[in-house]
Design a protein that fits this description.
By secondary structure, the chain is of the alpha+beta class. Among the domains are: 84 residues, no CATH class; 126 residues, no CATH class. The strands form 7 sheets. A 5-stranded mixed beta sheet has the order 8-9-10-11-15, with no helix packed on it. The protein has a 5-stranded antiparallel beta sheet with strand order 17-18-19-20-21, with no helix packed on it. The protein has a 4-stranded antiparallel beta sheet with strand order 1-2-3-4, with no helix packed on it. It is globular, with a radius of gyration of 32 Å. This is NOL11 protein. GO terms for molecular function: RNA binding.
C-alpha cells in the first residue's frame, strides 16, 4: 500500500468462481482461496499459474476462511462445521458435520484466546438470530439466541475478545448499535445438553445528530472506545450522502465524518490501523491513530483554543487550495492521518501532533504560505531539524510539498539546491511528496530526477516513463552543461574528446584484450557484433548516467508497458542501442558485472531490453535503421546461447576438477595442463 505497487495477480479458469475471500497464511506465507465452493487452492508469491497450484477438493461447501497470525487458518463450512487447515489437509474428503439446521450464516469472525483459536459466527432463521462460539482445537461448541428487537433486525456484526469475553457489536436497522457480551465458557466433561441461552443486549450508540440520521451499512471496532461506521447520512429535505464516520462509544458522540461523493461498495475493512474502502473506482486507504479517550476530546472542549476548520480530531477537508496537511490538536483522540489511493496518483497528507501552546506543522506551513523566500526556507530548515523522530518523514514530506506548491504558484521560484539537499540527505519516497518529480520534469531538473529515480522505491510507472522520454529527447550539447552524477558510467563508457576516441577498459587478472591477443593469438569470433564504424557508447556520458537511473527504478511490467508503447520510434531505437551496448559490456567480463557506483546489473539490462522489444518490436522490424541493430542483437544472443550450451556439456568435468583441487595439497607454484576428452 505504501509503495502503491501491485505485487501479483492470479486468475482462475473461465467458468470458475472465487466463492470466498482469499487469505494469507501468516506462518507459511502462502495464499489460500476457495473456488466453486469446494475446491481449495494454496500457492505462493513465486507461483505464476494458479491452475498448477496445490488443489484439494473438499466434501462440503466452504463459507469463509479466517487466518490468525499465531493460530493458523481456520475454515468455516456453510453447515457450521469448523476445521483448522492442518487437520483439513490431512484428509480433504473427511466428513464435515452440520451444526446448523435450516439456518443461514450472516457473519463470522476469528480471534485468539490465549493459545486457542476461537471462531464466532451468527446465523438467521425465520427472523431469529443465533450466535455460535467454537474452539476447533478443543471440539467445543456453544449456541446462543440473540434477544429480539422490536421492529428492527441486525444488518451487520463485528466483535473483539477481552478478558474471556466476546464483545459482539450489532448494527441494527433502527440506526443503532447494540452490544452483546458472550462468555467464553470452560467446557466440562459432565456438561449436559441444555436449552440454548438467550443473550441480552444493551444500547451502545444511536446514529442521530442534529436531525440527520446515519444509515450504516458496515461497522468496525477501532479500540474499546471508538468505532467506525460506513453508511449514508440522511437529513431532512436533502439527498442522502455516503460518508465514513468515527464515533466515541464511551461518551456516545460523533467525533468526525467525511463525505464520500463518488460512492462506495458499502464495505469497510480495518487492518493494522488502516481503513480500506472502495471509493468510486479506487481502493482508498486511510490511516488512523487511536489515543486514550477523554470527555474534553469527545465534545471538542479542549483547554487550548481551536483554529477555524480544524476539529479536535481531523480536518477532513483540504486547507484552502493547498492540500498540504491534515492537522489535529488533541493528543487524546482518534486521528485520521492521510488518504492515498491505488490509482497511482493521489496526494498523501501528513499528520503532526500539536502540543498545547505550539503550532502544528500544518498551521505553520499555512502561516508561511506567503512568506518571503529566505524566511520560508530558513523556517523550513529549522522545522526539519527540530521534528521528532517518529514524525520526521511526515514533516519532511510536508516541507517538500510546501516548496513544490510554491513552485506551482510562482513559476519563477525554484529552490533547486534546497530540494536536492533534502532528497539526498533524507529518507523520502514518492508518496510523501508526489508533486516533486512532476515539478522537476517541468523545470527540466535532470539531476534531481536522477536522484529521485535512484532513491525513491515507489515511483509510478507513468513518471518513470516521463523521465525516460525527457532524458532521451534532451540534446547531448545541453546535457554537457548540466551537473549530473556520472559515477555509474565513468568506469566503462567509451567517451569521445576532441574528435579522438578514448575507450576505458577494465583489466582483469593482469590481462587486457590486446595482451590476450598478442600472447595467445586469439582471434575475434565471427559472431562478435559491431556497431558499424565504431563500438563506442551511442549516447554521451551524462545521458548514459541518467538512463542508468531509469534502469534502477522499480516498476511493474503490466503498468509500464502501455506507457512505453508511446515512446517515439527513434528514441526507442536509441535506448535499445544503449541497452545493447551495456549488454555487450557486461558479457565481456567473467562476472558479468559493470564497474562503478550504482551501475546497472545484467538482469536489469535484460529486463528492459525485453520490455522495450515487447513494446516496439513491430515498429522496429519495419524500420530500416533498426534492422542492423536487431540482427546484431540476434547474433550476439545466439553466440552466447551456443557458448553456454558448450559450458553445460563440460559442467560435470569442471565440477570433478574442482573436487580434485580441494583434495590436492599444493604448497608450491605449479602449472598443470589437463586434457578434457
Amino acid at each position: 500500500i505504501s509503495d502503491q505497487k501491485p505485487l501479483g495477480c492470479w486468475s482462475v479458469k473461465h467458468g470458475q468462481i472465487l466463492t470466498c475471500p482469499v487469505v494469507c497464511n501468516f506462518e507459511t506465507h502462502e495464499y489460500i482461496a476457495v473456488h466453486d465452493d469446494k475446491v481449495l487452492r494454496i500457492w505462493k508469491n513465486e507461483d505464476i499459474n494458479l491452475d498448477k497450484a496445490f488443489k484439494a477438493t473438499l466434501s462440503a461447501d466452504v463459507y469463509r476462511i479466517h487466518s490468525l497470525p499465531q493460530g493458523g487458518p481456520v475454515v468455516l463450512f456453510r453447515g457450521g462445521g469448523v476445521r483448522t487447515l492442518d487437520v483439513l489437509l490431512e484428509a480433504p474428503q473427511q466428513e464435515i458435520e452440520n451444526v446448523i439446521s435450516d439456518e443461514v450464516i450472516r457473519w463470522s469472525g476469528a480471534f485468539m484466546e490465549g493459545q486457542q483459536p476461537v471462531l464466532i459466527f451468527t446465523t438467521e432463521k425465520d427472523e431469529d438470530f443465533f450466535v455460535y462460539v467454537q474452539k476447533p482445537k478443543l471440539s467445543s461448541l456453544h449456541k446462543y439466541k440473540l434477544e429480539e428487537q422490536e421492529s428492527a433486525k441486525p444488518l451487520c456484526f463485528t466483535a473483539h475478545v477481552t478478558n474471556q469475553t466476546v464483545t459482539l457489536l450489532c448494527l441494527y436497522s433502527n440506526d443503532s448499535v447494540y452490544q452483546v457480551l458472550v462468555p467464553l465458557q470452560q467446557d466440562t466433561e459432565e456438561e449436559e445438553e441444555e436449552e440454548e441461552e438467550i443473550l441480552s443486549k444493551s444500547l451502545l450508540l444511536n446514529f442521530s445528530v442534529s436531525g440527520a440520521v446515519l444509515k450504516g451499512t458496515s461497522l468496525v471496532v477501532l479500540d474499546k472506545d471508538h468505532v467506525a461506521v460506513l453508511g449514508s447520512l440522511a437529513a431532512p429535505r436533502k439527498e442522502p450522502r455516503e460518508c465514513l464516520s468515527i464515533w466515541n462509544t464511551k461518551f456516545q458522540t460523533l467525533q468526525t465524518s467525511k463525505e464520500l461523493p463518488l460512492g462506495t461498495s458499502g464495505q469497510l475493512w480495518c487492518y493494522e490501523e488502516k481503513f480500506f474502502l472502495i471509493h468510486g473506482k479506487v481502493l482508498t486507504v486511510i490511516m488512523y491513530k487511536c489515543e486514550t479517550s477523554s470527555l474534553a476530546a469527545a465534545v471538542g472542549k479542549l483547554k487550548y483554543s481551536q483554529t477555524p476548520d480544524v476539529s479536535s480530531f481531523v480536518n477532513w477537508n483540504t486547507l484552502e487550495d493547498e492540500e498540504l496537511v491534515v492537522s489535529f490538536q488533541s493528543q487524546e483522540s482518534v486521528a485520521l492521518k492521510a488518504e492515498s489511493r491505488i490509482n497511482l496518483r493521489s496526494r498523501r497528507s501528513t499528520v503532526a501532533e500539536e502540543q498545547p501552546g505550539t503550532l502544528s506543522v500544518g498551521q505553520l506551513l499555512l502561516n508561511l504560505k506567503d512568506a518571503p523566500t529566505y524566511v520560508l526556507e530558513t523556517r523550513l530548515r529549522k522545522l526539519m531539524a527540530k521534528a521528532p523522530t517518529p514524525d520526521l518523514q511526515a514533516t519532511i514530506g510536508c516541507v517538500v510539498t510546501a516548496l513544490t506548491d510554491r513552485c506551482k504558484r510562482n513559476p519563477k521560484y525554484y529552490p533547486q539546491t534546497f530540494l536536492q539537499e533534502i532528497v539526498e540527505t533524507r529518507d523520502l519516497s514518492y508518496s510523501l511528496c508526489p508533486d516533486l518529480m512532476a515539478v522537476a520534469l517541468e523545470k527540466k531538473d535532470m539531476h534531481l530526477l536522477q536522484i529521485c529515480l535512484e532513491r525513491f522505491p515507489d515511483i509510478p510507472e507513468e513518471i518513470t516513463y516521463a523521465c525516460l522520454k525527457a532524458f532521451l529527447s534532451m540534446s547531448e550539447s545541453h546535457l554537457q552543461n548540466i551537473d549530473v552524477n556520472v559515477d555509474s558510467v565513468i568506469c566503462y563508457v567509451d567517451v569521445e574528446l576532441d574528435n579522438k576516441e578514448f575507450k576505458t577498459e577494465i583489466v582483469e587478472n593482469g590481462f587486457g584484450a590486446e595482451m590476450d591477443r598478442d600472447m595467445c593469438g586469439t582471434k575475434i569470433p565471427k559472431d562478435r557484433p559491431s556497431w558499424g564504424d565504431d563500438e563506442s557508447c551511442p549516447v554521451g556520458l551524462q545521458k548514459a548516467a541518467l538512463l542508468n537511473a531509469v534502469l534502477h527504478s522499480a516498476y511493474t511490467e503490466t503498468f509500464l508497458l502501455p506507457h512505453l508503447k508511446n515512446l517515439p520510434a527513434q528514441q526507442a531505437i536509441l535506448f535499445l542501442r544503449y541497452l545493447y551496448y551495456l549488454y555487450v559490456k557486461c558479457s565481456e567480463k567473467v562476472n558479468t558485472t559493470l564497474p562503478g557506483i550504482r551501475s546497472p546489473t545484467i538482469n536489469q539490462i535484460m529486463d528492459w531490453m525485453c520490455l522495450l522489444l515487447d513494446a516496439h518490436f513491430t515498429v522496429m522490424v519495419m524500420l530500416p535503421e533498426a534492422k542492423e541493430l536487431l540482427s546484431n542483437l540476434h547474433k550476439f544472443v545466439r553466440a552466447q546461447v551456443r557458448f553456454y550450451s558448450e559450458l553445460n556439456k563440460i559442467e560435470g568435468s569442471l565440477q570433478e576438477l574442482q573436487r580434485l583441487n580441494h583434495l590436492r595439497e599444493s604448497h608450491t607454484y605449479s602449472i598443470e595442463v589437463l586434457e578434457i576428452i
